[in-house]
Amino acid sequence: MVDRGIQQKGLRISRPIVLIGLMGAGKSRIGKDLATKYGFSFVDTDDEIVKAAGCSISDIFELYGEEAFRDLEERVISRLLMSNVQIIATGGGAFMNAKIRGVISKYGISIWLKAGLSVLIERTSRRKGRPLLERGDPETIMKGLINERYPVYAKADIVIETQDIPIDDTINATAEALAAFFDKQPETKNEE
Ligand code: S3P
Fold first, then answer.
1. What is the pLDDT of residues 40-76, one digit of tens each?
2. pTM score, whole prediction
3. What is the pLDDT of residues 113-150, one digit of tens each?
4. Distance CA 190, CA 192 (A)
5. Residues near 4 by beta carbon (within 8 Å), at least 6 away in sequence
6. Angle in degrees, CA 178, 30, 102, rounded to 5
7. Are 57 and 102 in contact (CB under 8 A)?
8. Is 92 in the pocket of ligand 1 (CB under 6 A)?
9. CB of 31 closer than 6 A to ligand 1?
10. What are phi and psi of 19, to 5 degrees?
11. How far apart are CA 139 and CA 56, in angstroms?
């Protein structure tokens, strides 16, 4: 059961917060810092998938294929959304799955951390282990993903522009947007 309506250090959230966005958008970093600042728990769905599978994301793609990864992703996110009110960082492809969008819309609040190509390329170049970007030229792939995914990411409940903004400002902007969102929408969205 979801434990609704937690107030921590001035920020009240009544549903799980789900961070979405492309690889390198800062979902894990911002999610972790936001959770620490306001005293919520944080979970990264890719980490949970790795734990469940017992191997890395690259190995899942290589050994079982992307489809198996997406199935696991769907199960992990659904379970996390129904466990407790917390901050959840998702992998970049999660919100592209209509079923995942459906459970997020029903049980959580989605926040798109929106960043531009140059930032995404710069940040993703720092860490390996993203099989999608290893299929060719990362910049070309990232451009394709922006074109394909941004219209879908735009369906998120909240959009935060992260481009060239210090992390603390992004965290404050996210907390303010959440406060405004919950003020407008008392706990009715998923109670039907
Ligand atoms: C993916 C993003 C990755 C990871 C997987 C697939 C995607 O997560 O889930 O490699 O489809 O965009 P991050 O967005 O956390 O890098």
1. 999 999 999 999 999 999 999 999 999 999 999 999 9
2. 0.92
3. 999 999 999 999 998 899 999 999 999 999 999 999 99
4. 6
5. 14, 15, 85, 187
6. 55
7. no
8. yes
9. no
10. -90, 130
11. 23
